[in-house]
Amino acid sequence: MTEDETRGLRADATRNRDQLLAVATRMFAGAEEEPSMRSIAREAGVGIATLYRHFPTKESLVDAIYRDQVERLTTGAGELLDRLAPAAALRRWTDLFGDWIATKNGMLGTLRAMAESPDFAHAGTRAALLAAIGTILDAGRVAGDLRPDVSADDLADFLIGVFTVAPRPRDEAKAGRLLDLLMDGLRPR
Asked: Flavoprotein as a keyword (predicted)?
C-alpha cells in the first residue's frame, strides 16, 4: 500500500470517527432512552463493524462523547472570547453548556455505570468547567460587561437549575428565555 493510500485510509477513518461522534451526540441529546449502537451506526451511514472498530463498547462511545464535549466547553470559552464581547460570549457558552447537559441526559444509564469505574474522566470535569466560566466572567468584569460579584460556582448552579426546569431539546424556548433573563441579571447595574 502506498503512503497516499495509507494517508487516505487514515483520513477516511478519522471522518468516520468524527461522523460517529457527531451523530451519537445528536442522538443521545434527543433521546428519551439510550439509542442502540446499531441505530447510531445506521444513522451515521456506516456499518456496525465500523462503529465497533472505533468504539468497542457503548461505554467507550459515551466516554468519547463526554470527553469531546467537555473539551469543546473548556476550549470554547477562549474561542468565543476571541470573537465576541464577554457578555455575548457567555450567552453563547450557556447554549453550549445546555447542549452538553442534554447529551448527558440521553446517556444517564451508561454514565451511571461508568461512574463506578476508576478510569472515568468525570473527576476533573467540574474544575475544568468552572475554570472556563471563570475565564469568561473575568473578561466580563474587566470589560464592564458582567457583574463583579458573581462566581463561577454561582453561574454553574444557575445553569444546572435552568436546564433542570427547562431541559433541552424539549423546552428549548423556555431554556432560551431563562438564559436571557439570567444574562440580564448578570449585567452591572
From this structure: no
CATH number of 59-189: 1.10.357.10
pLDDT for 89-110, tens place per residue?
Answer: 999 999 999 888 888 777 777 7
Q: Are 13 and 87 in contact (CB under 8 A)?
A: no
Long-range pairs, 64-70, Cβ under 8 A, ≥24: 64/21, 65/21, 65/24, 65/25, 65/28, 65/103, 65/107, 66/104, 66/111, 66/121, 66/122, 67/121, 68/21, 68/25, 69/25, 69/99, 69/100, 69/103, 70/100, 70/121, 70/125, 70/128, 70/129
Please give the Cα distance from 60 to 39 (Å, whole number).
16
pTM for this model (two decimals): 0.78
Q: Indicate the CATH number of 1-56 among 2.60.40, 3.40.50, 1.10.10, 1.10.3470.
A: 1.10.10
53 burial via Cβ count (<10 Å: 0-12, 13-18, 19+): middle
Question: Can you list the pairs that 9-13 forms with residues at least 24 positions away whose Cβ atoms lie under 8 Å?
Answer: 13/54
Bond prior to 169 in cis (omega within 30° of 0): yes
Give tens-digit pLDDT for 35-46. Answer: 899 999 999 999
